[in-house]
């Protein structure tokens, strides 16, 4: 596989070719589409390398070089021996005795829960830029409506009273889960292999349900999406097209306090529309990232999220702001229950697994949206 530097150079060459085609006298749509496809492919490869590097750093932070505690390793093996349907020793049963028991499912080992959270971050669009933490209980996040004000004071004068307006958001613990089926033959595999298989199946479906909820969830038994509460920064003049003025007005609507960490979030279809937008001098506002930098529009980072809506009447296809004000709270507790009989006729064993999470935007003014007419 090519190095990141080689991929960046290849993308630069492909982009130059795409721009030359789009601005040339003998424009051919097929040639333009082929060049754009190459740019997209190279961009995806670069993003994959960036995600892998970030995940390795996260693993180093969460799991330092010291070996796993022997008690935790024993608990882990006992748990997966239970999952494999083996007869457990008395000590192994004791290792699981502090969990919810067979009726409600066993609490998964800490190492497995950590794997789920880290791999979810690897595949998530929002978790990498949101405020993410773990907790064992419902949590109230204090929110300041304003900061209060200083006054100019005479010597020995009276200090003005100006307290900040305080509020709070509550992060609950909504349950998301599924049943993962494993063949009888696969259960004869090693513990790490089974653990990884179930983890990856659960992560893939969990990220889909979580990510969609983080974007447009209604808050009913699921997280509240930022599109639901973020302020509208600009209403586009059209219901089917976006202009450079629409985007610049949206970005200009954000309070300067949130500008430093602000990014643009949209899906890939919308990004393709932005690629064609130019400023008043005819220069493209969209610029591909080089030397490890992300793609930008008017010098602001573009984050692609496939769960953002397409351009259509009344939709909000673009959000701009500081996503660190979107809070995601993972519960440490995850449960897994082995279902022996349900799928036995097809040679499978089911594993019912669930986790709990919530997400909310703390300050609606921290993220602005573009709404189509």
TrEMBL record:
<feature type="domain" description="Phage capsid-like C-terminal">
    <location>
        <begin position="104"/>
        <end position="371"/>
    </location>
</feature>
<feature type="coiled-coil region">
    <location>
        <begin position="25"/>
        <end position="52"/>
    </location>
</feature>
<dbReference type="InterPro" id="IPR054612">
    <property type="entry name" value="Phage_capsid-like_C"/>
</dbReference>
<dbReference type="Pfam" id="PF05065">
    <property type="entry name" value="Phage_capsid"/>
</dbReference>
<keyword id="KW-0175">Coiled coil</keyword>
<dbReference type="InterPro" id="IPR024455">
    <property type="entry name" value="Phage_capsid"/>
</dbReference>
<protein>
    <submittedName>
        <fullName>Phage major capsid protein</fullName>
    </submittedName>
</protein>
């Amino acid at each position: 596989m090519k190095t990141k530097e080689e991929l960046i150079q290849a993308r630069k060459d492909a982009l130059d070719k795409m721009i030359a085609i789009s601005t040339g006298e003998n424009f051919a749509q097929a040639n333009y589409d082929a060049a754009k496809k190459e740019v997209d492919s190279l961009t995806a490869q670069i993003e994959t390398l960036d995600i892998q590097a970030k995940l390795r750093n996260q693993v180093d932070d969460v799991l330092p070089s010291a070996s796993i505690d022997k008690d935790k390793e024993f608990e882990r093996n006992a748990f997966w021996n239970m999952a494999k349907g083996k007869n457990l020793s008395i000590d192994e049963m004791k290792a699981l005795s502090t969990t919810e028991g067979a009726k409600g499912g066993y609490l998964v080992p800490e190492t497995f829960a950590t794997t789920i959270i880290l791999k979810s971050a690897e595949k998530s669009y929002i978790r990498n830029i949101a405020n993410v933490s773990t907790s064992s209980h419902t949590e109230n996040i204090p929110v300041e409506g304003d900061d209060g004000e200083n006054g100019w004071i005479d010597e020995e004068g009276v200090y003005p009273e100006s307290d900040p307006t305080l509020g709070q958001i509550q992060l609950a613990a909504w349950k998301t889960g599924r049943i993962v089926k494993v063949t009888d033959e696969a259960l004869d595999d090693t513990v790490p292999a089974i653990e990884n298989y179930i983890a990856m199946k659960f992560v893939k479906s969990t990220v889909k349900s979580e990510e969609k909820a983080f974007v447009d969830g209604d808050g009913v038994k699921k997280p509240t999406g930022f599109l639901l509460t973020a302020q509208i920064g600009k209403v586009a003049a059209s219901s089917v097209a976006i202009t450079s003025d629409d985007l610049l007005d949206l970005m200009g609507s954000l309070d300067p306090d949130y500008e430093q960490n602000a990014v643009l979030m949209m899906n890939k279809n919308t990004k393709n529309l932005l690629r064609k937008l130019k400023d008043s001098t005819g220069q493209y506002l969209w610029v591909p990232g080089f030397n490890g930098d992300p793609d930008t529009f008017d010098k602001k980072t573009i984050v692609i999220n496939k769960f953002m809506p397409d351009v259509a009447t009344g939709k909000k296809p673009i959000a701009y702001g500081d996503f660190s004000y979107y809070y995601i709270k993972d519960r440490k507790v995850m449960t897994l229950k082995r279902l022996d009989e349900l799928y036995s006729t097809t040679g499978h064993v089911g594993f019912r697994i669930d986790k709990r999470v919530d997400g909310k935007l703390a300050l609606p003014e921290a993220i602005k949206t573009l709404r189509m007419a």
